[in-house]
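Researcher: Let's continue the batch. This sequence belongs to Putative outer membrane cytochrome c, and it's 463 residues. Same format as the previous ones, please.
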Amino acid sequence: MREAVSTQAPVGLWRTAVQKATWQGVSIALLATVSTVASMDAAAVPLFARQTGQNCQACHAGGHFPDLTPYGRMFKLTGYTLGQRSSLPIAAMAVFTATSQNGGTGTMANGQPTFNTASLFAGGKLTDSIGMLAQYTFNNYQDGTDDNGQSGHMGSDNTDVRYAKHIINDQTDLIFGFDANNNPGVEDVWNSSGAWGYNVVPGSVGTGSSVAPILLGGLGQQVVGAGAYLYWNKTLYAELSGYRTGDGVFSFLTQQQGGQGAYIQGTSPYVRLALTHDWGTSNAMIGYTYFDADVYEQPAGVYSGPGTYGNTGGPVDEHRDNMVDFQYQYLLDPNVVTFDAAYTNEKIFYGSGGLGGNGGVSDSINEFQAKVNYTYQAHYGVSLSYFNVTNTDNNGLNAANCVNPSNSTTGQCGTEGWTPDVYFMPVQNVRIGLQYTLFNRAYGTTVNATAYNTTMLYAWTVF
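Model: Same format as before. Here are the structure tokens for Putative outer membrane cytochrome c:
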């Protein structure tokens, strides 16, 4: 589930001189970050830039990572194997934030500067046909909300290993391959799902909802999967994969602690289809994703009858997700535009004797996300995102998770709102931005929704 946010009475954003001082401290930290990275050779910074000899804009639309260009998608589909194998196949990422929420507490209350997260990346070209991207991440505040006794956590993050072949002749341009990963959707090259998708800046509020379709990050670093894919004539993409619980010899790819991660029954199918078209300086994609996961209701403990749960038996809830998505890109320097939209519907079928004692009852979650991003000269950018999450609660399970007191009995925990983001990229591997998330509806109601409005200043660097 997505983390709950405090509902204390609203406070001003920069109400005191102390708060102003903290933002000044952030500015100094950001300037130091930019100076350090700018002193490096820009053409030899991230892992894949060193391998391909290309700058960041070649793979990322307008340099706005992680949005991929056609070249970036080709690089990923061909197994991260383009270019020469690097003698230093590692890179790092760090994110610094200062967040102020109207009704927040701790670091969310006053814009206190925070070292949010850091990642180490390894991989790239291993052979002419095999490549990978492995991410290992440290989250300074594991809950992402405040500093009330929370400690940092380090563990495996997104991992994607590929074997790929590219066949080109007078009639055919075919890429096919095999993929193994630990997050459904991390292999996608249009970034529609939770792995690299909507509002991906680490530490951002995102949709703020306590409910979400399981496809949108619900099983990340808790499962392992493998499958096959093909991309034919730059027109048709098709993939079929299967996911299982990431335990035993695969536990190093997960972030499970003490058996608290999700456990799925059997193999969960993942199907991805997309039609694409390139013309002039534009390209577009329309796609469909299907994911079906049977998840044990509670992984901790052993099932011993109705009302108790475990990964060795007991009630299993089926999460059946269907997503349709669209992307359009305009790529002509100095102007770059990317528009993404995705609608995901999840049906949840509760197991007999399960939570709430209402086996056979079903619920649904619907999530719509859209974002338009514009960059100029690969230095200046602005984006606007929209989100709308709704749900039913026929099983009476979500009421306790809806933290907004005015809606604590309905179980409708969805949110709706907007996130404008203005950013500057002084060098190709650093993005400094200011984003504001405005909630029209929070946790199922418009009452006191503005208490969740959040301002975040961030610096995101990859080197």
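Researcher: Any comment?
Model: Confidence is low (pLDDT under 50) at residues 1-23, 33-45, 143-149, 300-311.
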